Amino acid sequence: MSTPCTVCAAPAALLSDLDARIAAGDAGRYVVHRELAANGITVSMEAARKHIAHIRAGEQGIPSHAPGQLRLTTLDQAVALPPVPTVTAPQPAAPRGYEPGVRFERGAKAAVVTLPPAPTAPGEGDCAAYLRGLGIDPDLYILEPIEVRTNSHGWTRDDPEGAAVTQQTFFARFRVTRREAAADGFDVDELLATVPALAAAAVDRPATGAGESLLVGLADWQTGKRDQGGTAKLVERLAALGPAIVARVGELQLLGRNVETIYLVGLGDLVEGCKGFYPMQTFSVELDRRQQIRVARRMLTEIVKTVATLGIPVVVSGVAGNHGEQRDGSGKAFTTPGDNDDLLVLEQCAEVFSLAEGYGHVSFVIPDQELAHTMDLSGQHTVFTHGHVARGGWAGLWTWFKNQRAHGKTSATIAVVGHYHHLHVENDGLLTLFQCPALEGGSDYFSTAMGSTTVPGTACALVSSAFGVRDLAVL
Asked: Of 200, 306, 418, 462, which residue has the fewest beta carbons closer than 10 angstroms?
């Protein structure tokens, strides 16, 4: 098949190289237009496009002009579209606060170096070169990148196809710290000789100093579930939990810890629910809703009674989980966030202890409609939530935590969650994300679908402003 083509009337010597580049995909219509114009031949962009199309289709072109009659001009005389020029936007000035230079602050051990704007991301070598230009020897300093930002400020047609390419300008800052010279005459033998005395001083240290709170995460009991031994095995584990907490307090006191308050915090899903949480739930649970609440309430009451025998102040609190929601046939909660069986269990337990004698050191903190709330644990602000309000697993929990802080929803530097049934603790600077394991035995449905299961347990740790989070244990 043949196609009429204006470009095919160009000299064969020029077309042979150009057509080879077109067939290889290395030349587009802008390139064809420029190459012809550079040889004094002016064609329209549409003519260039049609020529590329039939060359790449493997079709023979029929010159629309007799050989030698295609209009030949100089570039100055061309009346068709001129070659598209390369456009380069001028380098913008640095934004306010990013003016190039070195900033020293009184009393600081390091300086901040702001590099001039650059078309590529600057690295340590660029910082070193900039310092040399200022007469500063970079080898005397440790160079640490602090921040790199980029602005889009223009476009160019340097692309082989002639397409528009966005231009970027990078602005970078480095922290520059002078290297410390090695101390002369440092005696390693003298240092190591102090080790026995340091070790002896740590033995039998009395329980003095700042008080700490023992946080116990009561997470995901899912009372009424039939899987993995069901309710009977769950009750065995819960019956052993109170004595285990008492024993843990004794262990911590032997270590010299000053446990001033015990926080028993329900992290949601204390009951399993009967409908709307996963396939076949209604026929897989072994307790109805009233029975689930009764068992969970009784076991929480027994745990509080046992822990209260220590005489240490006990604070019982908790948050609402997704399994405690009142859901309709679509699997969606249709009442308020606070209308939740997890909070109902806590309220009923609080009423029990408000009527009992000898529990003045036991108090309850129960949120109303909030799905997350913050408490002060020995000076350490800690936020609690079940975990279902976040999206995206572990990374989503971090995003939720940092957004809560950024928008003033919490002042906490520690976030404690449940929901995901596995122990996971991670620090990010001053922040700690603490995911507690579940005490339920595991899910046949989940392990079949995902291949993994959980090890039942209850996480506890000391929390304080003095030490942050330490002495983690799973009971």
From this structure: 200
Nearest alpha-carbon partner for 417 in 219, 269, 216, 214 = 219
pLDDT in tens, 2-23: 667 777 777 777 777 888 888 8
* pLDDT for residue 260: 93
The full length of the chain comes to 475
Rounded to whole angstroms, the Cα distance separating 282 from 224 reads 11
Across 78-134, the runs of DSSP E, i.e. the strands, are 101-104, 110-114
The three-state secondary structure class of 325 is strand
Q: Which residues contact 384 (CB under 8 A, 6 or more apart)?
A: 265, 267, 317, 318, 319, 372, 373, 374, 375, 415, 416, 417
**CA-CA distance, 253 to 210, in Å (whole number)?**
13
> CB–CB of 417/268 below 8 Å?
no
Strand intervals (E) in 59-211: 60-63, 101-104, 110-114, 141-156, 165-178
Report the 10 Å Cβ neighbour count for 274: 18
Q: Which are the contacts of 184, defined by CB distance < 8 A and separation ≥ 6?
A: none
Q: Which residues contact 140 (CB under 8 A, 6 or more apart)?
A: 178, 179
The pLDDT, as a whole number, for residue 206 is: 55
pLDDT at position 64: 62
What local confidence, expressed as pLDDT, does residue 338 receive? Answer: 75
- pLDDT at position 138 is 81
Q: Given this model, what pLDDT does residue 75 score?
A: 36
Q: Which is it for strands 372-377 and 380-385: parallel, antiparallel or unpaired?
A: antiparallel
**Residue-level pLDDT at 102:** 79
Contact between 267 and 386 under an 8 Å Cβ cutoff? The reply is yes
Supply the DSSP symbol for 286. S
Please identify every stretch of the chain with a pLDDT value under 50, giving residue numbers as ranges: 68, 71-89
- Residue pLDDT, tens place only, 81-95: 344 444 444 555 666
Report the pLDDT value the prediction gives residue 93, as an integer from 0 to 100: 60
Q: What's the one-letter identity of residue 93?
A: A
Reported pTM: 0.59
The whole-angstrom separation of Cα 315 and Cα 264 is 6
Residue 200 φ/ψ, nearest 5 degrees: -65, -35
Tell how strand 459-464 and strand 101-104 pair up. unpaired
CA angle 49, 50, 54 (to 5 degrees): 120
Half-sphere exposure of 450 (CA within 13 A, CB side): 9
Tokens coding 207: 């329980």
- Sheet with 101-104, side-by-side order of all strands: 101-104, 110-114, 165-178, 141-156
